[in-house]
Amino acid sequence: MINLDIARIFDEIADILEVKGDNPFRVRAYRRAARTIETLTQDLKVIAERGGVDELKKIPGIGEGIARKIVEIVQTGDCKKHRELTRELPPGLLEMLAIPRVGPKTIAKVHDELGVSSIAELEAAAKQHKLRGISGLGAKVEENILKGIEQYRRYRGRKLLSEALPRAESILEELKKRDAVERITIAGSLRRMRETIGDIDILVVSKRPKEVMDAFTSLEGVEDVVAKGDTKSSIVLKGMDVDLRVVDAGSFGAAVHYFTGSKHHNIRIRELGVKRGLKINEYGVFRVDTGEKVGGENERDVFRCVGLAYIPPELREDRGEVEAAQENRIPELIELKDIKGDLHVHTKWSDGKNSVEEMASTAIALGYEYVAVADHSPAVGIAGGMDEAKIKKRQVEIDSVNEQFEGEIRVLSSVEVDIKSDFSLDLPDDTLKELDVVVAAVHSKFTQDKATMTKRIETAMENEHVDIIAHPTGRILGKREPYEVDMERLMEVAKDTGTIMELNSFPDRLDLNDIHCRMAKDHGVPIAISTDAHDAMQMRDVIRYGVATARRGWLEARDVVNTRGMEELLNLLKG
DNA sequence: GCCGTTTTCGGCCCGACTGTTTTCAGTCG
Fold first, then answer.
1. Is the Cβ atom of A138 within 7 Å of strand B at any atom?
2. Which of A96, A166, A291, A485 is the most exposed place for a label (fewest CB within 10 A)?
3. Distance in angstroms: CA A265, C1' B29
4. Residue A63 per-residue DSSP state
5. How many structural domains does chain A have?
6. Residue A469 located in a structural domain
């Protein structure tokens, strides 16, 4: 899919225009187009070849100019405007945008006045106190830039959802103990449950904001107080930025909406407000003519005032949710309680820590109807993969556990069979056909080219015994890039062969991701939300990240196979 | 650069905090 490449080109154009001080609305137009393109579930190349500029212009945020550039990129693989702009600026300049508290204006100034064009040069200039000669920059700015560079180097990149969420929850616990805190909630990307989190946003209702600020900035583990005001403060806590905002009870709904974002979603909502003569800010919804407050206590007020159905936080990314809410098409998103079983867990029979029985009793405690033990096949030697003999032995144990827990849980016998680099599966069909569920996955040779890797997975899907493709892109967040694969093609083959795609709930996988989930839904491909748990605690703890990602992918319970009861599920499998 | 039940031109979301400023620019979300 060429979409991500095109989005990157438009983002870079926006960056360069920003540093050049170009029209900020033009910058915004490029950014909005980039965000839209990133999340499109259809290949731009296909759209461009089918309908050209006219069809591209139907996509919101894409007009004549950007549509023409997309066609140009699809046809020539290059964009003239982008090429010309990149020549105008030294390559290191844009990297500086990633430094906290350093923005386009600062970069332009230090470049124009001192010829600084990289982070290293900026650091040297600050240390030699050369920045304070520039108008608008002083000693404090030098100090903040050095701090920013240090922060950028130390905590580059974002934290996993699974790291940020528990940390935020413990901050909430701590602040709840204070009398001044009447109400407290998580907002920001964490409330939207993004897979990675840049900073933690917290919203408090209080009549005594100063006390709250004091408590917040003196929390245990605070490394730096970046800002401290009457209603807003910012700290660095154990390597994460944490922002806190205090409002009064009458503004809570407007504030939680504003503070949840995303930024792009908020812009769309406020634009709708402007058209209706309304001003929307974190304090409420106001009539522009009279200044009268018409809403703000509840989050639903904000949507109601602009004529929209309620939009759950996970959808607020300006990915079409505003249009859907206008037409009353907001999906009934899947919830944790809809999950009736886990179709991918490991046991001691390969690299898991717990026995079949222990996994079964945990599944019972979770209220599940079934759990599929999907231990590795022989090729994954490091994980103690099972050969045919071992699978037979394990079956005896599964049968006995099923007898023991009859009526409480059904343990499905399964394997996570390796899809080898020569396209073959790691176990013969005769063995696979004996199993209740077959999960197939790639575990090696991640560097095969896109066409080969796509064919490799396609071949597995075409096997009449393979029910589910596990972690279909192989990514490990922060450690391993996804392998190259034509996801749209895979979705088509999955649909044709009746193969289920896994949403692996492990917080550093979340694979399929939210956008892929939505693509699957558009193609009519069912999803299995599985944990890939290697012990019982993981089976319990990580499923919520999978469900969150599914919600971000607009999935409803009916799109997910493991919301079905045992009998219905068995009907959805190939066997 | 996009977009139109106020417009095909002239708008384009909104406010807090900081630092360098005597009234505001820059950054952030």
1. yes
2. A291
3. 12
4. -
5. 4
6. yes
| Chain centroid, CA A571 distance in Å | 31
Domain range spanning residue A235?
159-247
Interatomic separation, CA of residue A271 and C1' of nucleotide B4, rounded (Å)? 13
Q: Could you tell me the distance in Å between the CA of residue A144 and the C1' of nucleotide B3?
A: 40
Q: Which nucleotide, over all strands, has the C1' atom closest to the CA of A109? A: B26
**CATH code (residue A527):** 3.20.20.140
User: Are both A363 and A446 inside the same structural domain?
Assistant: yes
Q: Does A443 map to a domain?
A: yes
Q: Are residues A494 and A366 in the same domain?
A: yes
Question: Cα–Cα distance between A456 and A450 in angstroms, integer?
Answer: 10
Residue A447 counted as domain residue = yes
Is the distance between the Cβ of A320 and the closest atom of strand B smaller than 7 Å?
Answer: no
Mark residues 377-396 of chain A whose C-beta is closer than 7 A to nucleic acid strand B. Answer: none
Contact (Cβ atoms closer than 8 angstroms) between residue A352 and residue A386 = no
Exposure letters A48-78 (e unless 16+ CB within 10 A, then b): beeeebeebbebebbeeebbbbbbbbbeeee
Asked if A209 CB < 7 A from strand B, the reply is: no
Q: In this structure, are residues A367 and A563 in contact, taking their beta carbons and an 8 Å threshold?
A: no
User: Are residues A380 and A237 both part of a single domain?
Assistant: no
Contact, A411 vs A435, CB < 8 A? Answer: no
Q: Which of A31, A29, A42 is nearest to A3 (CA)?
A: A42
Q: Which of the nucleotides lies closest to A275 (Cα–C1')?
A: B6
- Is A66 within 7 A of strand B by CB distance? yes
Nucleotides of B under 7 A from a protein CB: 1-3, 5-6, 11-21, 25-29
Give A132 CA → B13 C1' in Å.
33
Whether A440 and A469 have beta carbons less than 8 Å apart is answered as yes
Q: Which of residues 395-424 of A touch strand B (CB under 7 A)?
A: none
Strand B proximity: list residues 494-553 of A with CB under 7 Å. Answer: none
Q: Is the CB of A190 under 7 A from strand B?
A: no
Q: From the CA of A251, how many Å to the C1' of B10?
A: 33
- Judge if A376 and A280 occupy the same domain: no
Cα R_g (chain A), whole angstroms? 26
Task: Read off the amino acid at residue A160.
Answer: L
Same domain, A265 and A359: no
From the Cβ of A135, is strand B under 7 Å away?
Answer: yes
Same domain, A320 and A419: no
The spacing between the Cα labelled CA in A136 and the C1' in B23, in angstroms, equals 14
Domain end point (choices A205, A222, A247): A247
* Whole-model pTM over 0.85: yes
Provide the residue type at A356 as one letter.
V
CATH of the domain at A181: 3.30.460.10
Decide which of A269, A298, A326 is a domain's last residue. A326
Q: Per residue of chain A (575 residues), what is the pLDDT tens digit?
A: 688 889 999 999 999 999 988 888 899 999 999 988 888 888 899 899 998 899 999 988 899 999 999 999 999 989 999 999 999 888 888 889 888 889 899 999 999 888 898 998 999 999 888 888 888 888 888 988 888 888 888 777 688 999 899 999 999 999 999 999 999 999 999 999 999 998 999 999 999 999 999 999 999 989 889 889 989 999 988 878 899 999 999 999 999 999 999 998 999 999 999 889 899 999 999 998 888 899 899 999 899 999 999 999 999 999 999 999 998 999 999 999 999 999 999 999 998 889 999 999 999 999 999 999 999 998 776 667 788 888 999 999 999 999 999 999 999 999 999 999 999 999 999 999 999 999 999 988 888 899 999 999 999 999 999 999 999 999 988 778 888 899 999 999 999 999 999 999 999 999 999 999 999 999 999 999 999 999 999 999 999 999 999 999 999 999 999 999 999 999 999 87
Q: Is residue A331 part of a domain?
A: no
Q: How far apart are CA A35 and CA A61, in angstroms?
A: 10
> In this structure, are A486 and A350 located in the same domain?
yes
